[in-house]
Amino acid sequence: MKNTINAVLAAITIALSVNTTTATEVKTQILIADVQDSNSLQAVFDNYFALKDALIKSDAKTSSAKATTLLASIGAVKMDKLKNNEHNVWMKVMKKMTSDAKAISSNQDLKKQRETFKSLSKNTYELIKASGASQPVYYQYCPMADANWLSKEKAVKNPYYGSSMLTCGNVVETIK
């Protein structure tokens, strides 16, 4: 009888500890999901910067792959989690950003990718202005391409001409 009671108590203890562990894991997963939801625009921005870096290197294949990742992050944005001003801008730019990311992802022509990147940069700029940046972001301009882009670095690295005119351009605005 004593062994049976001990076995039942051990089973209850194990069941309770499993439930506590499961509850802790569920809470952690919920917190991670909340952080991911609130940072869904950050994922869009990060993937935009990755695409820009691939264009700087004049790597059409990587640019295409980075645009595919950007497209996925655009699709993952939870509109109901956005602040009112972010939501308003998001509704204005989302379709064009999606279209631009698709065009870049499905194209291996670097010149066409860069031309489409102009529009993508314009819309990303509007979005990051509404959202605010977690760190300084530099809005840069190239007079030769007559186009802007966003960068995490103040030093100009031109995505429109790559190594042929890497430092062509200047910072026109710092977004904080």
UniProtKB/TrEMBL annotation:
<dbReference type="InterPro" id="IPR021782">
    <property type="entry name" value="DUF3347"/>
</dbReference>
<feature type="domain" description="DUF3347">
    <location>
        <begin position="44"/>
        <end position="135"/>
    </location>
</feature>
<feature type="signal peptide">
    <location>
        <begin position="1"/>
        <end position="23"/>
    </location>
</feature>
<protein>
    <submittedName>
        <fullName>DUF3347 domain-containing protein</fullName>
    </submittedName>
</protein>
<dbReference type="Pfam" id="PF11827">
    <property type="entry name" value="DUF3347"/>
</dbReference>
<keyword id="KW-0732">Signal</keyword>
